[in-house]
Specification:
The protein has three helices and no strands. By secondary structure, it is mainly alpha-helical. It has one domain.
Length: 76
């Protein structure tokens, strides 16, 4: 258990870096006008295919792993 408490901060740092990179690599379909109440014809639905789908699923998995590592750090 002590060995895990020594390596857990490094695991969290690596997960945080990977999670940040995976979020930043995703394309944003909303323009700046949408942030200020501007309307566009984008309905909000988008079918992910190929690399975009893999990146989306990877981001979800990395997020779950990061939260699990944070809760594990609280317990230890």
């Amino acid at each position: 258990m002590e060995n895990l408490s020594n390596i857990l901060p490094y695991i969290q740092i690596v997960l945080a870096v990977f999670l940040t990179v995976s979020v930043l690599l995703q394309q944003s379909e909303g323009g700046l006008g949408g942030a200020f109440g501007g309307s566009d014809d984008f309905s909000g639905t988008h079918t992910r295919r190929g690399f975009e789908k893999i990146l989306f699923n990877t981001t979800i998995v990395l997020g779950i792993l990061f939260v699990a590592a944070a809760f594990l750090a609280l317990i230890i």
